[in-house]
Write a structure and sequence with these properties.
By secondary structure, this protein is mainly β. It has a single domain, classed as Maltoporin, Chain A, CATH 2.40.170.20. Helix content is 4%, strand content 59%. Strand 33 and strand 34 form a beta hairpin. The longest helix has 11 residues. The two termini are 46 Å apart. This is TonB-dependent receptor. Belongs to the TonB-dependent receptor family. It comes from Sphingomicrobium clamense.
């Protein structure tokens, strides 16, 4: 037997290391890693709280999933402007998490107890929808086994459990989270009326995941289910979102590696919207969206290659989303008189490839991608419930090719310092919700637009990193441009009967989804971590100065963008179960609208968390958010009443388990 054959056989017999992760992690640009223990100890117990550690990220509405509508939580970054659909690509174990119908993210489906590491990469990336960046969520490792139960403000309960075990050579993890609350009153005290009450919520999520070797291949199978019920603090604003996800990923790590991922997602959503009279005394339902079934499916494969000093990859991806919406509107004496149905299908077929070369002092990496986006079978029909048809529209099928890419260069003049430069282009295609479905919020109405085109972003970056044992600082200056950005653009005022939406009452706003010509933004991002024995310090700051560069709102700031964002925290862990954390977050004022007529002031929150062992297996937990009870405005109701984010919230509970 030759030496080469013996080595080959030995390599085949060597056990593979099961990680539960994919081939690689995001590199290049401003990348922030939030370790699993930091995710689990977050004071708010919500994904929004975890992500607030990374300045520059923001959701379409400031309020979190305790009170905001689930369709208003699309995240964005770099001042590109807020949108209900996500302008950041979010994946869980490699599977896209944007809703197949609306493109929004439902943070209630991501209890931090059911998550492992979180990796945030700011800046345009050649992935579908990643014009503001990418967020990589991972399932927890198999090590911890724990359960926690806490009671808090507004008669709230928060429970979670994680159980991991080795199964042969594989890993199995089961996790679950539940949070329910009577809720706080979203409308500020001065603007409330008899109709206002607490915004109740009841949210559950469960995950099962198995990673197991089959020959030389790591096989990862996942199942997720969630159920999110909440309302907006007024009768007639209840909503419910449910989801079931199945995924499988095969990972081969021999040689340059390869992976194959497939997923299937089932979503169901229902909601009601209500308008309140001028005295906020009597709510009336204006829209009953009683059935929104949606499905998403996809597959992605890639293979690595090596040629001398160059490492690369080639791959392809296919995605499909299909949805319909059924809703009743135009209520008279409390009963609906119209019914609308709308829907369609979108498909995406992408090809991508990349290469990287690295030397002692420098590296260069590039990725290019081409995607064909197709919109088909689009329709919208409006019927009079008493009989008769008002609209029966069928939209022409259409498709287009979009190119994206990124190039990163790095130079290391010393062991501690790295200089970076990057240029990137990313694309986000319109969602079915934006293309075919009009909607109402209170008395205001927004029309769909079946002629929307994909939005694109071009960005350049210059950065410097410094790292020493236990400490790191990363800083990036960027310039970004958003072309054909999709926004809700005001086009008229009521009263009147308008195509696509029907009657709009006096004083209410009619908007339409439109591609605006251009947004320009520039700014800086700084992140630092310092470990000083049992103490760690974390700091994150982002500045963005965006402007609408063309069109009727030229010179204005895009909606829902703060110029300054800050997160500063200190944590202590003695390594024996005792830990404490204190974090301050700040965001400067922003506007709710394109006209910049409805300003939202600064927002500040001081949050804290404490864990203290009572026995070897039992810990006391105490958490508090917005400890100073600072008031931050989240938006305006259609009658002008001001909505706020969550007030001071306190939790006390117990955790049992072991690592």
């Amino acid at each position: 037997m030759s030496v080469a054959l013996a080595l080959a056989l030995a390599a085949q017999d060597a056990p593979i290391v099961i990680t539960g992760r994919g081939l690689d992690e995001p590199e290049g640009g401003q990348v922030v890693l939030i370790e699993e223990d930091k995710v689990d100890e977050e004071a708010t117990g919500r994904l929004e709280g975890v992500l607030s550690e990374v300045a520059g990220l923001s959701f379409f509405r400031r309020a979190d999933a305790r009170s905001v509508h689930p369709t208003a939580q699309g995240p964005t970054a770099r001042g590109l402007g807020g949108n209900a659909a996500s302008r950041i690509a979010i994946t869980l174990d490699g599977v896209p998490q944007a809703d197949p119908f609306g493109g929004w993210i439902n943070p209630a489906a991501f209890d931090p107890a059911t998550l492992g590491r979180v990796i945030v990469a700011r800046g345009a990336r050649p992935e579908p929808g990643a014009i503001g960046g990418q967020i990589y969520l991972e399932s927890p490792t198999a090590g911890p086994r724990s359960a926690a139960l806490a009671y808090g403000s507004d008669d709230s309960w928060d429970a979670s459990a994680v159980w991991g075990a080795e199964v042969g050579q594989g890993l199995f993890v089961a996790s679950a989270g539940w949070m329910r609350s009577d809720g706080f009153v979203p409308i500020v005290a001065e603007d409330r009326g008899p109709a206002d009450r607490g915004a109740a919520s009841d949210q559950k999520v469960a995950r099962l995941r198995l990673s197991y070797p089959v020959g030389r291949v790591e096989t990862q199978v996942g199942l997720t289910a969630f159920d999110d019920e909440r309302d907006r603090g007024v009768d007639g604003t209840d909503n419910r979102a449910r989801g079931l996800d199945l995924s499988a990923r095969l990972v081969g790590r021999d040689g340059a590696g390869w992976s194959l991922t497939g997923w299937w997602q089932d979503r169901d959503f229902e909601t009601r919207f209500a308008a309140v009279d001028g005295d906020r005394e009597t709510p009336r339902v204006v829209l009953d969206q009683y059935d929104v079934p949606a499905t998403g499916a996809g597959a992605r494969g890639e293979v690595g290659w090596r040629a001398g000093a160059v490492d690369g990859n080639l791959g392809g991806e296919w995605r499909r989303a299909e949805a319909t919406v059924a809703e009743r509107f135009f209520f008279v004496a409390g009963d609906p008189t119209r019914e609308r149905r709308a829907g369609g299908e979108t498909r995406l077929l992408g090809l991508f490839g990349g290469a990287e070369v690295e030397r002692e002092a420098w590296s260069l990496a590039a990725t290019i991608r081409a995607d064909q986006w197709r919109f088909s079978d689009g329709f919208r029909a409006v019927d009079v419930l008493a009989g008769g048809s008002l609209e029966d529209s069928h939209f022409a099928d259409r498709s287009s090719w979009q190119e994206s890419g990124r190039i990163d260069a790095a130079f290391r003049p010393s062991e501690r310092v790295t200089l970076r430069a990057a240029a990137a282009r990313a694309v986000r295609s319109p969602t079915l919700n934006e293309l075919v479905r009009p909607f109402r919020v209170g008395a205001n109405a927004t029309a769909a637009n079946e002629n929307l085109v994909p939005e694109t972003s071009d960005q350049i970056e210059l950065g410097v990193d410094w790292a020493d044992e236990g400490s790191s600082v990363r800083a990036t200056a960027f310039a970004a441009r958003l072309d054909d950005g999709i926004f809700n653009v005001p086009v008229n005022m009521g009263p009147g009967l308008f195509p696509g939406v029907g009657f709009v009452s006096s004083g209410a706003i009619l908007s339409e989804r439109q591609n605006l010509p251009r947004v320009k933004s520039h700014g800086v991002e700084v992140d630092s971590v310092h470990a000083l024995g049992p103490v760690d310090l974390r700091f994150s700051y982002a500045f963005a100065d965006p402007k609408l560069a063309k069109g009727p709102f030229a010179g204005n700031r895009p909606p829902q963008v703060a110029r300054h964002q800050l997160s500063a925290g200190v944590g202590w862990d003695d390594g024996e179960g005792r830990s404490a954390a204190l974090r301050l977050t700040y965001a400067s004022g922003r506007f709710e609208d394109l006209e910049n007529d409805r300003p939202l002031g600064d927002a500040v929150s001081l949050d804290a968390a404490l864990r203290w062992p009572l026995t070897d297996m039992l810990q006391l937990e105490a958490r508090g958010t917005n400890l100073t009870n600072a008031r931050a405005l989240a938006g305006f109701a259609s009658d002008g009443a001001r909505e706020r984010t969550a007030p001071r919230t306190l939790w006390i509970g117990l955790r049992v388990g072991r690592d």
